[in-house]
Amino acid sequence: MDKFTLREAILDDLPHIVNMLASDKLGVQRESFTDPLPEAYVQAFDQITADPAQYLMVMELQSELVGTLQLSFLPYLTYQGGVRAQIEAVRVHNDHRGKGLGRKMIMRAIEMAQKKGAHMVQLTTDKKRPEAIRFYNDLGFTATHEGMKLHF
User: How confident is the model over 75-94, as a mean pLDDT?
Assistant: First the structure.
């Protein structure tokens, strides 16, 4: 496999990240990839990158941005005041799927969570994404809880 780099996102990465978020069957319904990007994306990016409990990861392959995920560290009173790591918004560019890149990003996120002392890594994936469910199961994640959301 070609050499890849995993690093923290910078503002110049934002259009590429939003493009990946908008380029799947569910994202196309909720994201707005326009030029220029809606200001709400810039504001969210600024909030995420200013928060030490957040890490917005990107993956570069031969100078091309090909993947992203967000890792959040959430303090809890449960588990004796433990910290959970939450993985969200995992995307690999359509042209690069099936090459093990998503696995590499998730494994790096797990390593980062362990180094921060998290007692678990959790994530959600939409039930309309059976391929994602298989992917996470293959990585050792198990569906131990029933997730619920209330959209506004």
Answer: 95
Superfamily of domain 4-138: Gcn5-related N-acetyltransferase (GNAT) (3.40.630.30)
The answer to whether the CB of 101 falls within 8 A of the CB of 61 is yes
Burial letters 85-103, b for 16+ CB under 10 A, else e: bbbeebbbbeebeeeebbe
**Chain-centre distance of CA 150, in angstroms?**
21
Contacts of 125 (CB under 8 A, 6+ apart): 132, 133, 136
Q: What would the pLDDT profile of 6-43 be if each residue is shown by its tens digit?
A: 999 999 999 999 999 999 888 888 899 999 999 999 99
